[in-house]
Amino acid sequence: MSIKQETKRASARSLKTQIREPQAIYEAPIQDPRQDPRIRIVLDFLNANLHRRIRLIELAEVAKISPSRLSHLFKTEMGLSPGQYLMRLRMRKAGNLLATSRLSVKQIMALVGYDNKSHFVRHFRRSFDLAPSEYRKASSF
Q1: Which pTM value belongs to this model?
Q2: Residue environment code for 17-46, b if the CB has 16+ CB neighbours within 10 A, otherwise e
């Protein structure tokens, strides 16, 4: 085997070990039966509308409470703000799609609600320490 091939193989193995399991990092908290029903409604809404832009005021209307009350309640129940939770949910879905589908990065980006590629790549890299294409390559071994 040539040095170039050996280096390429070592690099691929290195990428494989760098991948953080999306479920391990962004596992959504298990819904507690004592959880406020308004939060469950918001979580269902977020999961169903992951592909589009979601504003706090819209979430508040769905839960039938004020935006500030929703923010406080959501942070208390989930440990994250609604925006942080939504970004983690989107990144988890993107990682899953990159690892399990042949959709292009652009298609995955649209499915998880991003319309700006650099914004998506920046968030993805921040979440997984790899660019989407590197993540896909490393998870395909």
Answers
A1: 0.75
A2: eebeebeeebeeeeeeeeeeebbeebbebb
